[in-house]
Every structure is written in structure tokens, then in C-alpha cells.
Write a structure and sequence with these properties.
Layout: H1 2-9, E1 15-20, H2 32-38, E2 43-48, H3 56-65
Parallel strand pairs: 1-2
Length: 73
């Protein structure tokens, strides 16, 4: 993924990701998980959700985005 390559090659200490479930591709924006999994620095994620209860897919993305691989950041 070019975005992760760009961020990893730069002089960035942290990534700030503001995630709205309807913007990124994949079910509930799940494509963002690929980006997060490839980053070599910590990421701070803000999740935005409209009115109502989160769907199962949205809860899965929220849960997965809060886990980071060992050695990251």
C-alpha cells in the first residue's frame, strides 16, 4: 500500500488517523486495517460514527484498529 510506504519512509513519529466508517473502502472501512498493519510507527485513531448503534462490522473495525502488532511504535 503506497500510503503506508510513504508514511514509513518519512520522518513521522506518529500517524493521526481520523476514521469515518463510510469514507474508507471495504465493509465499514475495513481497508484502513491494512494501512494500520503496515505502519512502523504508533497511530492515534479517532473513530467517528453517526447516530444509532454501531453495526457488527463497525464494531469489528473498531476492535481491530485498537490492536497493533508487536514491535510497532
Amino acid at each position: 500500500m503506497r500510503a503506508a510506504d510513504f508514511l514509513n519512509a518519512g520522518r513521522f513519529d506518529t500517524v493521526c488517523l481520523q476514521h469515518e466508517f463510510g469514507i474508507f473502502g471495504g465493509e465499514a472501512g475495513a481497508h484502513i486495517l491494512v494501512l494500520l498493519s503496515r505502519l512502523t510507527m504508533p497511530a492515534v485513531t479517532t473513530l467517528a460514527h453517526g447516530a444509532g448503534r454501531a453495526t457488527a462490522a463497525q464494531r469489528a473495525v473498531m476492535s481491530a484498529s485498537s490492536r497493533r502488532p508487536r514491535g510497532c511504535g
